[in-house]
Amino acid sequence: MESKAHRIDLNELFKQLASSPSGLTSQEKTKRQKEKGLNLLEALGKPPLIFQFGKHLVNFFAILLWIGALLAFIAEKLSPGEGNIYIAGALTGVVILNAIFTFIQEYQSEKIIESFHKMMPVTIDALRDGTRKKIEAKGVVMGDIIFLEEGDRVPADGRLIEENSLKVDHSSLTGEFEPQLRTLECTHENIIESRNMVFSGTLVLSGHGKAVVYGIGMDTQLGRIAKLTKRTEKIDSPLKKELNYFIRIISTIAIGLGITFFTVGIFLGGGLMASMIFAIGIIVANVPEGLLPTVTLSLSMASKRMAKKKALIKSLESVETLGSTTIICTDKTGTLTENRILVNTLVLDGDEKLAKEDGMDQISGMDELLRISILSNNARVSAKGNFHGDPTDVALLKFAQRFRDIHQVVNENERIEEFPFDSVKKRMLTINKVGDKKTAYLKGAPEVVMEKCTRILHQGKMEGFDESQKENIRGYYRNLANRGERVLALALNHEFSGVEENFIFVGLIGMNDPLRKDIPEAISTCKRAGIKVIMITGDYGATAEAVAKMAGLVGDQKANLMTGIELDSCDEPQLKEFLKKDSIIFARTSPFQKLRITKTLQSMGEVVTVTGDGVNDAPALKHADMGVAMGLSGTEVAREAADMVLLDDHFETIVNAIEEGRTVFSNIKKFIAYILTSNIPEILPFIAFVVFGIPLPLTVVLILAIDLGTDLLPALGLGVESPEDDVMKMPPRPRNERLLSRSLLFMSYGVIGMIEAAAGFFSYFYVLFSGGWSWGQELNYTDPLYLKAVTAFFVSIVICQIVNVQVCRTRRESLFKKGIIGNRLVWLGILSEILLVWMITHIPVAQRIFGSTSLTPFEMALALPFAFLILFGDELRKAGLRRGNAFLQKYFSG
Questions:
Q1: 3-state SS, one letter per residue, for 444-503
Q2: Architecture of domain 287-306+667-891 in CATH?
Q3: How many Cβ atoms are within 10 Å of 177's Cβ, its own excluded?
Q4: I need a surface site. Which of 73, 231, 282, 732 has the fewest CB within 10 A?
Q5: Strand (E) or helix (H) holding 351
């Protein structure tokens, strides 16, 4: 029915609804409620919380850690007292912590539907049993007759059967700023555009009316958007995709090596227990147990920094998504503009004046212009000085208040009759009693008002209004419209006879929604950063294009503009071709069209950030790679659907957040490089143990000490590293740029990791040989010489990692230029590593847990030459990268 509810004859609609202008009986209401249910927005079904949490305990990464924990439990059962129970407990704890972090993030996104409920009223007046009664809004049924008064929120979709100067604010539903006057006639083929309809969740601004309900609950326009938003698939962030890829690769390596060398151990006669210990060691050494908590904490710290810049991040992964954004789809009102209409320009006495100029009340014709602005106006000022009413009328009153006492003018000029503004006549006319005469005050579209004028006010006198003067006024009108101003013409008739003719033309008033001051620079920054900005608005094309030109979205060339109607007739290949152009504007769009544009851009390989503030924006906000809602002017629905909320509604805040996001991705690569480096010196001891039959140089417990004890804080320090100077002068990172690139793996595993492994083996064998050990000699795991050698291997890795964390602070820039002491959290991490080494080598309880012992200062310093090699070797590599060395770029870029 909906598609024609606004077009069919009202009697036919009542027939289809089995209703009448006298409403329904209580019995009929109860019957219909049983059939159709309550007028509520229902949340779609979702699995119980326990299942939502449980799925995070069985992902690929978690399964790998569970396998390691299970093997450790088995090893402890077969050979008690060797520390395997600590390994099993630590791995189990890591799985549970990772699951908790991820579950919390997902659970927050399930709150979206709750915000739609806040759009619904609690009570409404309805006609029941022939009597007007106040009922619960959720009890409204199809065919009910509802009463609408100023301040009411509409409870359901309905068609008007009575109206008196009824104006409804549709901005939350359609994104259109201008409140809409309602009529009883169908005015548009599109039901949303037709002025004989009212829709659930919208607000009555003025006037009153009655409507017959034809849609309730999830069958309303608001319900459809709620349903679309809930069913809209949330796209995985680029970071989540990269982390999943990273985990798959690392896990595959771990499982492959674990199985391979377990088999090799059995084949070489190493025994089941030794081979099992070996397999556990390989898995634990390869899996970066602290990765997900480190990433989560790093993103959390970045989100706190962004909050200080007025950007509230709801989904932590979204911090990085901003950094990879290639296209921003922005709305106009409230994002690029200030979302407040102001009088900007006057055309009086054949001259254009800025409204903010001094001495405006002395201009010829100003008195008449102010009287028309006040009297042909339905806005009002409360006793507290607050303005209420249509934003255009409010803007006129605010301007007039600078020069006149509004209440005095209204009281001295009693209104006799009013002909309200509508989309057909495009004018508002009031008849007021001025002394003993009736004076008509007229405001409206310039072309309409000028047609009713035969005279013009010039130098305080009335003159004939000929065609040349009209063309002069049209020239001013075109100039104002091209600047994006909404233009009204004003006229009066001192001897109104009831016929709209012989008016005196007074002047033009140009009003605009001012562009935010920071917008042009923010748009310019986006262009330098290789980010394309597309405007998608519910406003008209001419206004949108004018604002786009002021913002810098459109240069001297004409914008590539497409309306919602044109978009509907555009197939997918045509839309993709259009989206490849520059200076793009979409005007008069619907929620479904905004979502379609977003999906099409994503299918073209773009990372899309979408801004919005209304209910109509919610589906696109949710589906976008990054949804950004307005915190001040936005609806609760938009804020819940978005990934980020702008606390100041400034577009510039998005640009600042993009810089932070780009830095986050680079920093995550830095700490991944850091934590991966220690994998090689952790794996090679087990390979040497099996292949060469030497005493195991590094135990699984000490590997966990490195991964969980020494990697976490330094990695977090890398996560808060300050950005490079050129971060916003580079294009968005390529879609194929991976967190785990070949060059990063090669640098971590093949270069620095090998140097660290060499440091560990050097220290290990130095201690063994200096203690009298000979090749092939077996050592008990409690032998003091073995404990010292194992401790030396561990300390060597930590010393090299202390230098490595400093090296990882920059990817191209010299560490010495950046400043060695610039990152306090990195130094806190280094202190924690030193403290852990001291505990493991000096405290008896820790020595028993970790199987370690004390070392001499000389034995602890054995790794220093290798550490210095890492530091200065990497400085040479970075110098080569800065000079553009192609070989280094390909294999050693990290």
A1: ECHHHHHHCEEEEEECCEEEECCHHHHHHHHHHHHHHHHCCCEEEEEEEECCCCCCCCCE
A2: Up-down Bundle (1.20)
A3: 23
A4: 231
A5: strand 351-354
Query: Which of 220, 172, 174, 218 lies closest to 195 in space, CA to CA?
Result: 174
Provide the CA 239 distance to its chain's centre, in angstroms.
15
Domain spans of the chain, in order of start: 2-36+119-231, 287-306+667-891, 311-338+516-649, 344-512
Structure tokens at 665: 């991705």
- What is the CA 811 to chain-centroid distance, rounded? 28
Give the lowest-confidence range in 9-13, 83-87, 462-466, 640-644: 83-87
Strands 327-330 and 532-536 turn out to be: parallel
Spatial contact of 699 and 840, defined as CB atoms under 8 Å apart: no
Q: Could you identify the residue written with the tokens 């002395």? A: 362
Which among 169-173, 280-284, 455-459, 715-719 has the top mean pLDDT? 455-459
As separate numbers, helices (DSSP H) first and strands (DSSP E) second, the chain gives: 37, 26
b/e string for 651-677 if b means 16 or more Cβ within 10 A? bbbbbbbbbbbbbbbbbbbbbbbbbbb
Q: What is the mean pLDDT of residues 831-858?
A: 92
Structure tokens at 544: 């949108």
The rounded distance, in Å, linking the Cα atoms of 679 and 804 is 13
Q: Collect all residues with Cβ–Cβ distance below 8 Å to 613 and sequence separation of at least 6.
A: 175, 331, 333, 334, 335, 629, 630, 633, 634, 635, 638, 649
Q: Which residues touch 617 (CB under 8 Å, ≥6 apart)? A: 175, 331, 591, 594, 610, 611, 629, 638, 641
Question: Cβ atoms within 10 A of the Cβ of 238, count?
Answer: 24
Dihedral Cα 351, 355, 361, 365, nearest 10 deg:
40
Choice between 541 and 416, residue whose per-residue pLDDT is larger: 416
The answer to whether residues 837 and 857 touch, using CB atoms and an 8 Å cutoff, is no
Closest CA to 757 of 700, 832, 697: 697
Quote the tokens at residue 164.
Answer: 């008196």
Q: For the chain, what is the radius of gyration of the CA atoms?
A: 36
769-784 burial string, b = 16+ CB within 10 Å, else e?
eeeebeeeeebeeeee
- What is the residue-wise DSSP string for 116-173? HHTTS-SEEEEEETTEEEEEEGGG--TT-EEEE-TTPBP-SEEEEEEEEEEEEE-HHH
Q: Which CATH number fits domain 311-338+516-649: 1.25.40.10, 3.40.50.1000, 3.40.50.620, 1.10.10.60?
A: 3.40.50.1000
Neighbours of 624 (CB within 10 A): 33
CB hemisphere CA count around 799 (13 angstroms) = 25
The answer to whether 275 and 296 are in contact (CB under 8 A) is: no
Choice among 169, 219, 331, 711 that is catalytic:
331
Q: What does each C-alpha distance from 685 to 236, 518, 682, 798 come to in angstroms?
A: 38, 58, 6, 15
Q: How far apart are CA 117 and CA 115, in angstroms?
A: 5
331 catalytic residue (yes or no): yes
Query: Of 526, 323, 341, which Cα lies nearest the Cα of 534?
Result: 526
Lowest-pLDDT choice from 207-221, 236-250, 671-685: 236-250
- Answer whether CATH 2.70.150.10 is correct for domain 2-36+119-231: yes
CATH number of 344-512, picked from 3.40.309.10, 1.10.3660.10, 3.40.1110.10, 3.90.1170.30: 3.40.1110.10
Residue 205: alpha-carbon gap to chain centroid: 30
Q: Are 250 and 287 in contact (CB under 8 A)?
A: yes
* 839: Cα within 13 Å, side-chain hemisphere: 14
Contacts of the segment 246-253: beta carbons below 8 A, 24+ positions apart: 246/291, 246/672, 246/738, 246/739, 246/740, 247/60, 247/61, 247/291, 248/60, 249/740, 250/286, 250/287, 250/288, 250/740, 251/60, 251/61, 251/64, 251/286, 251/287, 253/286
245 to 252, 285, 617, 762: CA distances (angstroms): 11, 19, 31, 35
Q: Are 712 and 294 in contact (CB under 8 A)?
A: yes
